[in-house]
Write a structure and sequence with these properties.
The complex is a heterodimer of chains A (about 575) and B (about 300). With about 575 residues, chain A is mainly beta. Chain A contains six helices and 38 strands.
């Protein structure tokens, strides 16, 4: 697939050494786009429209100046869909960075309460979440099992743990929790994970690069500060890598750093970004997958004894199909081929294609990107992503947000614009996808330089909407209007013995002759967190049979549940509530 | 390298016997023979003998003596086209392009041939001066439309300098029109076609390359990765296993093999292949010489 690399590799033998001009700070394979297939002509029953202004989301999220001198200014942030006040309507969290010149003194993460009428109210200050700094990623989970979702937010600087007080406010408990760090780190991906299945959420934190403005070369200063022969901000290649960390929940509001004894801290050589947890090998224990930018991605296999072994290369999920490191940014989990196993979508830089890894059920992966039809899209830098059934036809689609990191490039290289559209790959079945941009609505074709995105149903109308982080712009809120008439089911898990957020639990739904699995995650997409209510499009099927495998390994067969509703399943008690929602 | 050149010169020399003996050693690549012959040079060495000696020293890796010998030969016959060419190539092989280019330019004054412009292009190429190299390769191709090596190097430059795969494809097609069975050209043509997602075309080119030279591991490696892309795992496995049999340290092939074994459900073998990938990956660098015989950089004249 990366024929260019191999062509270069062999042709360069005449040269004996590779030309320095070929080096750059980001791994990009120089992949040529595969030819586009003939359009299927099948109508797409989903239209995504950006309603952010009408919804009241008008404050920009900041990340550096419009001129990007340093890598800290290009990476951007995540967002979250989560129900902070347990009113059954998901709220929004939009993270923000800052500016190196200090000119964005009012930039802060923002919490927006859902007014249940398509609008939102900024409640950041009232919730106690005003914070200035360089936020990156968020993971949402009830770490103290009190019934309210808490937040952990990574920073370039000090990461922050916010305890949800259950009264609409949050308290920064980082220090009490023992999560203060002695030095300035660049926290990036993070995910709650109950790795020892004790019912209490532990915490995995990825770190991006060792970054110090004073020690980082300026644009164009070295081979790693050039792209396509033009000077650009340096990195990540050429900057120090940083090790991930794992923190054990002591069940008393504090955490212990177990990075070393768990083996997680021994994994070196990756610029870590998005982190996800899921039981990828179906052995009943949650594993961790971390996208690596321009370096191998990591798969931490849970050895069931408090330790992990990094096995990404062994399992075929570290590198490209040709064994080449890619610029791994975002990660989405889902069951694209409806075989009950969790597959992985990882996004990359331009001149490369997103990677779709199909799981054999034992945690061994085969890359299916080209066969799936993703190889025709290499134009954009891809970030947040989801495997979500956008048109409720029973086949999970792919949604990806994009955006360049080099604003200065488009003047010289018009093929690499800074703002680029979102991508939808609709699932045609049989392992094939078809790219749709204009056909998926104006919210998809609109150009922004986006980073994180989250998936959830903010208007409770039985589909999947999308919240998107845009560079130095207000976020986009894409309302989905489904016209397919397909049925659907949402499942909200409530753990009892398992952690209350049920992170790491897996729901399998049989509908018609299909079967689809989804897992409850605490981070996915790009440094973002999705609505915890799992959404299954069911197509024409009017029945759905549900099985839950809880994080502690117990399987609960729920049986048939009504469709077109939200089913709340309490561990050990089956369906305790069904809400038809407003559809 | 240029046995024909030396043979042309031999009848002119008084020390024909000494030069002939040296030529024999060169042809047989017998290092002991070369060493022995060079130990007792004729008193007044003729340019013919010096030309043969230069080649012999190169084969023994005694570059400084090779340069001294060919410079002495040129000194006694300053405007001899073949000696100037040999002098340029000797510098070129010793990595001294700054002396090679003037020598080739003097030869070009005597006879502005396609070959000499190809050589000038090659020296500029080795200096990473792709634009000037490209101009000379283009001139070489213009002077002789059967100079397939110039076409091949133009393909190389299209990729290195401009990322121009389409241009490379055209030049490779021209080279293959002249030398349709050249396994090296077929290999690279196959790779370029793979990049253009012409899998059937790539398969045809690579199968031809394998037929023409079944000992090149890179041909089997690329056929293996192509078959894997085409979802033909059994064939992919056969080709990739052949690649690592031929070159046991070819890390890239182990990575592909691991994926193929995983797809075939052979997890133990996949694990073993992954371990070998990890073991060898540091050695499998971008300047891996597999698949590009040095003769294309420093080699003989284009076939006519």
């Amino acid at each position: 697939m990366s024929a260019r690399i191999l062509t270069r590799r062999s042709l360069l033998t005449a040269l004996m050494t590779a030309p320095a001009a070929g080096a750059q700070g980001v791994a990009s394979r120089g992949l040529h786009a595969a030819p586009r297939s003939k359009p299927s002509g099948v109508p797409f029953g989903c239209k995504l429209t950006d309603i952010s202004v009408a919804a009241g989301l008008v404050k920009p999220a900041i990340c550096g100046s419009d001129r990007k001198d340093y890598i800290i200014e290009v990476v951007g942030c995540g967002v979250a869909f989560f129900d902070y006040d347990n009113d059954g309507w998901i709220d929004l969290l939009v993270l923000s960075g800052s500016r190196l010149d200090g000119s964005a003194s009012d930039a802060t993460n923002r919490l927006y309460r859902n007014n249940r009428d398509g609008t939102f109210t900024d409640v950041t200050a009232a919730a106690g979440l005003v914070r200035h700094g360089w936020a990156m990623g968020v993971t949402v989970g009830d770490y103290n099992n009190d019934g309210y979702e808490d937040l952990f937010i990574t920073y370039w600087g000090q990461n922050v743990l916010y305890r949800n007080n259950g009264n609409g406010t949050f308290t920064d408990v980082t220090k009490e929790a023992g999560l203060l760090t002695a030095t300035r780190e660049w926290g990036s991906g993070c995910t709650w994970v109950d790795y020892d299945r004790d019912g209490h959420l532990d915490l995995f934190v990825a770190r991006y690069v060792g970054f110090d403005v004073a020690k980082t070369p300026k644009a164009g200063a070295s081979a790693n500060c050039n792209w396509k022969g033009l000077p650009v901000s340096c990195g990540p290649l050429g900057l120090p890598t940083a090790r991930p960390g794992l923190y054990h929940n002591n069940r008393d509001g504090t955490f212990t750093d177990v990075s070393a004894p768990s083996g997680v801290g021994s994994a070196t050589g990756s610029y870590g970004l998005t982190a996800v947890t899921a039981d990828l090998d179906n052995d009943g224990w949650p594993d961790i997958y971390m996208a690596g930018d321009s370096t191998p991605s990591f798969f931490f296999h849970n050895r069931k004894d408090g330790t992990f072994r990094e096995e990404a290369i062994l399992r075929g999920i570290a590198l490209s199909e040709d064994g080449v490191a890619q610029a791994g940014m975002g990660v989405a989990l889902g069951d694209v081929n409806l075989d009950g196993n969790t597959d992985v979508l990882k996004t990359h830089f331009s001149d490369d294609t997103p990677a779709l890894y199909v799981n054999d059920g034992k945690g061994n992966f085969s890359e299916a990107s080209i066969r799936a039809g993703l190889g025709m899209e290499t134009r954009y830098v891809s970030w947040g992503a989801g495997i979500v059934d956008l048109d409720n036809n029973g086949l999970p689609d792919l949604f990806i947000v994009t955006g360049s990191i080099y604003p200065e490039l488009e003047r010289t290289l018009p093929d690499y614009p800074f703002r680029t559209p979102r991508l939808v790959f609709r699932n045609l079945g049989g392992g094939r996808f078809e790219e749709l941009i204009d056909e998926a609505g104006p919210g998809v074709s609109a150009a922004h330089s986006s980073r994180g995105c989250a998936f959830g149903d903010f208007d409770n109308d039985g589909d999947v909407d999308v919240l998107i982080w845009n560079m130095n712009e207000p976020p986009s809120l894409l309302r989905n209007d489904v016209s397919s008439g397909g049925h659907w089911l949402k499942v909200l898990l409530v753990g009892v013995q398992t952690n209350r957020s049920a992170i790491g639990s897996k729901v399998t739904v049989r509908y018609g002759d299909r079967l689809q699995a989804q897992e409850v995650t605490a981070q996915a997409s790009f440094l973002s967190a999705n609505d915890k209510r799992l959404h299954f499009g069911l197509g024409n099927s009017t029945t759905a049979e549900v099985t839950v495998r809880w994080t502690n390994g117990n399987t609960e067969r729920i049986g048939k549940v009504p469709v077109d509703c939200l089913a709340t399943i309490r561990e050990g008690h089956g369906v305790v509530r069904t809400d038809p929602m407003k559809r | 390298m240029t046995a024909w050149l030396l043979l042309l010169l031999l009848p002119l020399s008084k020390e024909a016997n000494a030069a002939e003996r040296l030529m024999h050693c060169i042809e047989t690549r017998d290092k002991a023979c070369l060493t022995s012959e060079l130990k007792s040079p004729p008193g007044n060495a003729s340019p013919e003998y010096l030309s043969a000696a230069a080649e012999a020293y190169l084969l023994l890796g005694r570059n400084a003596e090779a340069v001294a010998a060919i410079e002495a030969a040129v000194k006694s016959k300053p405007n001899h086209y073949d000696l100037l060419i040999q002098q340029g190539r000797t510098y070129q092989r010793c990595g001294d392009q700054l002396h090679a280019i003037p020598s080739f330019l003097l030869a070009a004054k005597v006879k502005p041939s396609s070959d000499v412009f190809y050589d000038i292009g090659l020296s500029f190429f080795l200096l990473h001066e792709y634009e000037r190299a490209g101009k000379h390769f283009a001139h070489a191709a213009q002077l002789d439309d059967r100079n397939h090596k110039a076409e091949f190097m133009l393909a190389v430059i299209d990729i290195l300098k401009d990322d121009n795969e389409a241009g490379a494809k055209t030049h490779l097609e021209r080279a293959l029109a002249i030398e349709p069975q050249n396994p090296h050209y077929l290999l690279h043509y196959g790779i370029v076609l793979m990049e253009h997602n012409d899998r059937e075309g790539a398969a045809a080119a690579l199968e031809k390359a394998a037929k023409a030279d079944s000992s090149n591991p890179l041909v089997h490696f690329n056929l293996g990765r192509l078959r894997r892309q085409m979802d033909d795992m059994p064939k992919a496995r056969t080709e990739l296993e052949a690649a690592v049999r031929l070159r046991p340290e070819l890390a890239r092939a182990y990575y592909q093999l691991a994926a193929v074994y995983r797809a075939l459900g052979e997890t133990a073998k996949a694990k073993q292949a992954t371990e070998l990938f990890l073991k060898f990956k540091e050695q499998d660098r971008d300047d891996d010489p597999v698949g590009s015989p040095p003769s294309y950089a420093f080699g003989d004249r284009p076939g006519k």
